Amino acid sequence: MNKITICLGSSCFARGNGAHLDRIEQWQNEQGLAGGIDLAGCRCRGQCSTGPVLEINGQLHHGVDEGMLWDLLEYDVQVADPAGGHHE
Fold first, then answer.
1. Which Pfam families does the record associate with it (predicted)?
2. Comparing C-alpha atoms, which of 76, 59, 66 is closest to residue 15?
């Protein structure tokens, strides 16, 4: 299962993570991944100057804008294919 943790501290939230949360949920539904992603919020990670910050499958990402978010979802989140395997 994929895990995405999004910083919801005030700086990251104001810099875009509030909207990113909605985008991730939208993408998850469009991909048919309901229940396939453990999506969680967290308190400030203390990296406000490099925010917004989010973590995907253990990899921390800084300065995530909307374009970068879509790229991260496309390339870093494993989606099950119809044969039961995974592709990236």
1. 2Fe-2S_thioredx
2. 66
